[in-house]
From TrEMBL:
<dbReference type="GO" id="GO:0051539">
    <property type="term" value="F:4 iron, 4 sulfur cluster binding"/>
</dbReference>
<keyword id="KW-0408">Iron</keyword>
<protein>
    <submittedName>
        <fullName>Fe-S oxidoreductase</fullName>
    </submittedName>
</protein>
<feature type="domain" description="Radical SAM core">
    <location>
        <begin position="173"/>
        <end position="408"/>
    </location>
</feature>
<dbReference type="InterPro" id="IPR007197">
    <property type="entry name" value="rSAM"/>
</dbReference>
<dbReference type="Pfam" id="PF13282">
    <property type="entry name" value="DUF4070"/>
</dbReference>
<dbReference type="InterPro" id="IPR034530">
    <property type="entry name" value="HpnP-like"/>
</dbReference>
<dbReference type="Pfam" id="PF04055">
    <property type="entry name" value="Radical_SAM"/>
</dbReference>
<keyword id="KW-0479">Metal-binding</keyword>
<keyword id="KW-0411">Iron-sulfur</keyword>
<dbReference type="InterPro" id="IPR034466">
    <property type="entry name" value="Methyltransferase_Class_B"/>
</dbReference>
<dbReference type="InterPro" id="IPR025274">
    <property type="entry name" value="DUF4070"/>
</dbReference>
<dbReference type="InterPro" id="IPR013785">
    <property type="entry name" value="Aldolase_TIM"/>
</dbReference>
<keyword id="KW-0949">S-adenosyl-L-methionine</keyword>
<dbReference type="GO" id="GO:0046872">
    <property type="term" value="F:metal ion binding"/>
</dbReference>
<dbReference type="InterPro" id="IPR058240">
    <property type="entry name" value="rSAM_sf"/>
</dbReference>
<dbReference type="InterPro" id="IPR006638">
    <property type="entry name" value="Elp3/MiaA/NifB-like_rSAM"/>
</dbReference>
Amino acid sequence: MRGVGQHGIRRILCVFPRYTSSFGTFEHAYPLTGGVQAFMPPQGLLLIAAYLPADWKVRFIDENIRFATDEDFEWAEAVFVSGMHIQRQQMNDICRRAHAFNLSVALGGPSVSACPDYYPSFDYLHVGELGDATDELIERLARDPSRPAAQVVLKTASRLDMDKFPIPAYELADIKHYFLGSIQYSSGCPYQCEFCDIPGLYGRNPRLKTPEQITRELDKLLECGISGSVYFVDDNFIGNRKAALELLPHLIEWQKKTGYVLRFSCEATLNIAKRPEILSQMREAFFATIFCGIETPDPVALKAMHKDHNMMVPIMEAIRTLNDYGMEVVSGIILGLDTDKPETGQHLLEFIDHSRIPLLTINLLQALPKTPLWDRLKRENRLIDDDGRDSNVDFRLPYDHVVATWRDCMGRAYEPEKLMERYEYQIRETYPKRIQPRTPQQRSWRNIKLGLTMLRNIFWKVGVRGDYRRVFWKFALRRLARGEIEYLISSVLVAHHLIMFARSASRGKTNASYYSLKLRETAETAVSAEHKAVATVPTLRADRSSGQRVTPV
């Protein structure tokens, strides 16, 4: 379904803000690949681009790949921007650059929907999801694309049903340059974890696309050049368990039809371990990785943050169950909770050793607007408005101790030898339990060429030039001797990023909270030399508003 413009063809420039160097966007892995420059294609802007009237001209730019140029702004009649709280500075910078060409700029997405007052400079604020506010914005621009005399705030009162969503305009993005593909099946989550803003923004009753929509989107992603993995960016894949069970047979049939050329990953609550009927079909659909917001192994802390559902199955048992279905677990971990003690860091490291989870997003607690945590800390006068800090929370423990604990945990958890030991465990105990399709599509010349390119880059950049090459070759030679080339590539791509990023973290060169507004140097991984001069405004680490769910290929 598309919006309708009644008064003429318009030229719309959609600009996605730049990320900064972060744990969850894997920029240190990009040089090891065959041309990756950015993390995932942004669903929101590509959806809006597809929804615009069919005769409108649309240009999409992801500033993680290239910056919008003067020529782009000169071409446009209006600019659309979207992003999260931690992209606030970049979004305001795009607005400033567009206004230099006297263009009207419309802002949508989770940040402005939660905090419209953050963005006084934009001409149009789109608050809420796709719906009647979107139609009104299109109609206004169709009548007159010039800047309004005062800011216009459009609030969605009637959301468009997700089964009427168009396929995101993947054809506008250079899909082959993304680390992962992305797809959204549902919106909303039934749980009310204290720190999470998803129920406040998108509701507790998950809304859904149809299985047919999802398979059409997967077809489009393949057509546009995606390879490797596709991440279901739903806030909780089993937010509606009945719907998940209805979707999975369609995914299984799609995989059989296309030759299992893609692996799937998603995020779900840990109580998915109690659902063997779902896990068995996820295995058949080739779900290889699942992000679970474990947050903490401390049951007292889980109860305090209203995440009791993580205790429906003992955490270690749940992890083993998921591993038994061939799914590697990725975990979110939070430090700085009110229940933390001086020894919490050491207990976390012990949990990492026992769980054998390779990838954990260890993050300092940050209070997001429109969350129960924000409301509670505001009542307790414990919100701190200081962009020079790594968190806006007045912790129970001394601030310096909490930050030091985070740095220590990052440094020790991702020591090369320890990390490779955890991958050894996954290769031995988890990966063999996946289905093992061997199809002509997987053995295509394109895939073989890509694999050889990545092997060459890994051997040179890690095995020859890397400073942990002894650990690498011990791991790599074992893979080569056993013919585990795919495991070698997938493990090292992620491990190299984790090792490099963790070193920066332990030296205090990255934010301890990935939501922090503390300014850092902008990463340069995807910016060509002629554009580096444009990146003069420090940018912020980009996340999904509910927490960046990082999932390896």
